[in-house]
């Protein structure tokens, strides 16, 4: 009797090869909230549903940032009078302390491969850039200068780090190798330059500068060439953020005492004001698909997480009670 087993096996393999790949989980938002009386880390779906508390440590737990694979969240947590760097699974399990004495409001940055986190530690009153292994096995100091080094960010390929430094007596932007070697100064203007942010392709860096009298937004090549001013009126505050496709830059604009969110093309030609409320709007983060921007607004009478489209339409509030620092999973 003829055996049909090989044919069955071939049919099974064919069915497996034709089966669709597992769907990637939709992005989530992590944020800090004080709804339970003190600051804790929460996560929620992109529509605001399924809000879940992830931390339960004493003190404050804030500043969440997702790992590139979406499996872990790094965050800051207080121990006594200082802030420490922690990491946990995306469901809040297995929290691990990575470093102590971080500069709380200085941004952290995951390496593209998810193995390390850049942060700023304060030692002897001075700020320096450190690389911390995400598994908790080591902390490496990358900068050591008499002036503060701050706002570090990995390049998209993970080979370089942009940061701002006061080592030469003025705040300038530098780039160094991922191990801290070969620092190169990119800006040389006597006015302060800071808050560098890489374009997604790694070819350009957006930054803020006061070289024209007040803080404005600029873009330059990754080697410091072709510096272009792209805002001319309202001051640009906080770190600018490129859209995932690199075609736009969102930033926090300041007009008098009012903070709003705007989006501008890298050449400065097309600019859209997304918010115009009289209260604070800021702390923005692009969604992975570039279709939405999460931000914090005080328009509800307290700081809450909102979503808005890059054209300024469809603003919707996602959280109730004081909330801060929204961060998207990828």
Mean pLDDT across all residues, rounded? 91
Give the percentage of residues in beta strands: over 45%
Order of helices and strands: HEEEEEEEEEEEEEEEEEEEEEEEEEEEE
- Gyration radius over CA: 22 Å
Range of helix content: under 10%
Return the structural class: mainly beta
What is the number of beta strands? 28
Biggest sheet, spatial arrangement of strands:
3-2-1-28
Can you walk me through this structure?
By secondary structure, the protein is mainly beta. It is built from 1 helix and 28 strands. It has one helix at residues 5-18; strands at 28-33, 40-45, 52-53, 61-66, 72-79, 82-89, 96-102, 109-110, 116-123, 126-133, 139-141, 149-154, 160-165, 172-177, 184-185, 193-198, 204-209, 216-221, 228-229, 235-242, 249-255, 258-264, 271-273, 281-286, 293-297, 304-308, 316-317, 323-328. It starts with a helix and ends with a strand.
């Amino acid at each position: 009797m003829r055996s049909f087993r090989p044919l069955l096996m071939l049919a099974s393999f064919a069915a497996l090869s034709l089966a669709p790949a597992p769907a990637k989980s939709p992005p989530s938002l992590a944020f800090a909230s004080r709804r339970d009386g003190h600051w804790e880390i929460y996560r929620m779906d992109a529509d605001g549903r399924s809000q879940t508390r992830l931390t339960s440590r004493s003190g404050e737990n804030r500043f969440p940032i997702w790992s590139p694979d979406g499996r872990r969240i790094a965050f800051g947590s207080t121990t006594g009078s200082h802030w420490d760097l922690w990491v946990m699974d995306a469901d809040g399990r297995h929290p691990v302390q990575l470093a102590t004495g971080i500069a709380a409001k200085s941004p952290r940055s995951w390496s593209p491969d998810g193995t390390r986190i850049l942060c700023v530690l304060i030692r002897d009153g001075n700020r320096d850039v450190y690389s911390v292994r995400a598994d908790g096995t080591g902390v490496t100091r990358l900068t050591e200068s008499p002036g503060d080094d701050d706002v570090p960010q990995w390049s998209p390929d993970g080979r370089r780090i942009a940061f701002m430094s006061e080592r030469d007596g003025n705040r300038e932007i530098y780039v160094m190798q991922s191990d801290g070697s070969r620092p190169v100064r990119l800006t040389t203007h006597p006015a302060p330059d800071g808050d560098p942010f890489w374009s997604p392709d790694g070819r350009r860096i957006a930054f803020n500068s006061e070289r024209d009298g007040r803080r404005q937004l600029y873009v330059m090549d990754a080697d410091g060439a072709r510096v272009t001013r792209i805002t001319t009126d309202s001051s640009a505050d906080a770190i600018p953020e490129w859209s995932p496709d690199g075609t736009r830059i969102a930033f926090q604009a300041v007009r008098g005492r009012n903070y709003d969110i705007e989006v501008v093309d890298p050449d400065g030609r097309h600019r859209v004001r997304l918010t115009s409320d009289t209260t604070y709007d800021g702390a923005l983060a692009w969604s992975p698909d570039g279709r939405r921007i999460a931000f914090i607004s005080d328009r509800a009478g307290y700081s809450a997480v909102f979503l808005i489209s890059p054209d300024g339409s469809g603003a919707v509030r996602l959280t109730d009670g004081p909330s801060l620092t929204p961060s998207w999973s990828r």
